[in-house]
Amino acid sequence: MKIYNSYIIIVASLLLLTTVILVALGQGSLDIYYTIYIIEALFVTEIYVYFNAKARRGLNLVTYILFGGFLGSVALQIVKILA
Amino acid sequence: MGRDATIRNPYIWAGLSLLVAGSMACFSAYFIFDLTWITALGISLLILSFILLALGRTIPNLSPEVCVLLLETGITSIAAVIEELGVRSRAIYLPSSLTRHRPQALIPLRSNLLLPRIAKSLPQRLIVQYGDDPDDTGLLVTTVGTTAVGMLESIPSPSSSELESALTYLFRVTLGIADGTTIITRDNHISAVIHNPRFENKATWSHQCLGSPMASIVASVIAEAWDKPITIKQEEQHKRKYHIELEVME
User: Fold this and answer.
1) Which residues on chain A are in Cβ contact (under 8 Å) with B170?
2) Mean pLDDT across chain B, nearest whole number?
3) Cα separation of B117 and B100, whole Å?
4) Which of A4, A9, B4, B71 shows the greatest Cβ crowding within 10 Å of its Cβ?
5) pLDDT exceeds 60 at position B2
6) In the sheet where B137-141 sits, what is the strand order?
7) Interface ipTM
8) Is A53 in CB contact (< 8 Å) with chain B?
9) Does B242 have pLDDT greater than 80?
């Protein structure tokens, strides 16, 4: 389970670091936070090529959920622009 | 995964905890306090919780203690048979094409100064005759490597790079007992180096015959990849590296 732990620690550290940096930069848009979180999570998942098939299927499901959230936020922005 | 296993799974617990904490942080920060950074922190907790819950479902049901118990029992039984028969010859790791089923190890009952040539597939029995000579009798045993080969998603090709990635996948991801493997092939001699092994090797009679569990895994995978019998010539630990010398039999 060592590989799972290292993967989770890297993702958690990246997300926390991103939050700290964006807060320090005074970023006020939740969309920016969310988009960067997704990119980081996807990037780290792709780096870990050694995950077994079952773990990869589970992480693919997480990716679909996160991407669904991203599409939702894009849809909201479009509605805002059109309104 | 069973209900009991789910209850004991730390990844599921951590995931559920982060799910509750993230939901509460998001809800309160977004709808009550109107704080963007806490909402963002809550979203990051939710993402982590999804990842933990997804990975938690892939953890095996058996605890490491049960696995050690089963492994020790199996190895002890084989060791007892080998020691009782007084066999001193080195095992020959056979590919599945020579055993009709799955890769196994053949232990010749007579000292194999001249390694026997095995041309035909052997029957699925404990005591098998592998040559024309009546003395060409040996034990066909299932080893740790036999089971480990079954854990691979596909059988690698004989190239060093494919063998390296298959063995690294086995040792690092599936079994979690080492960090990686390097394979160097010179004609019919193969050198394998296992980096940072975390598996205790005991110097027993059966290990002299069958090799250590890690060497057994390496030999079985290479035998299956090359589709030829393999013997372990030598194995030794140097600091944080475990060196295994193997020979491919023609």
Assistant:
1) none
2) 85
3) 17
4) A4
5) no
6) B127-129, B137-141, B104-108, B92-94, B230-238, B241-248, B189-195, B180-186
7) 0.93
8) yes
9) yes
